[in-house]
Write a structure and sequence with these properties.
Largest sheet: none
Low-confidence stretches: none
Order of helices and strands: HHHH
Structural class: mainly alpha
Radius of gyration: 20 Å
Length: 152
Amino acid sequence: MPKPKSKRKPATAPARPAAPATSGQFEALIAEAFPHANKLAQVIQAYYAVRGLAIPDAREALGFAVCELGECFEQQNAKDAGKWKRNNPARHKPYTERAFAEECGDVIMMAFAAAWFTAGLNPLEALLNKMRRKVADESTGTLDATPPNANG
């Protein structure tokens, strides 16, 4: 049986820049991104300080990240409001692109907090380094079988 066609309009995503064609262009983008990763670390620390928030340990922060991920799914469920009968419908926020993006941001902040506040490691820098390593491994045809040393 064919699936019914969706009555929703397709989401319009912002225009994406063309991907760099070479590993050199990719490397330049990575180098540009590092200062922003450090700035975000400072912003998150200041946010916690200004709001007087308790610093979670890694387990707590990851648990909060999962809860925030649930809120992302809640926003997606709200997008299909007429499709599902919800318990306590008045308690559910209506879908907005902004609310969905904010919940995604909360997931990122809590995942960031898990690494930053407990291990002193910037997970965005770690991600950039991992991406750099994978591109280098692919370009040389090697496989990095040993994980990077987390202590430096």
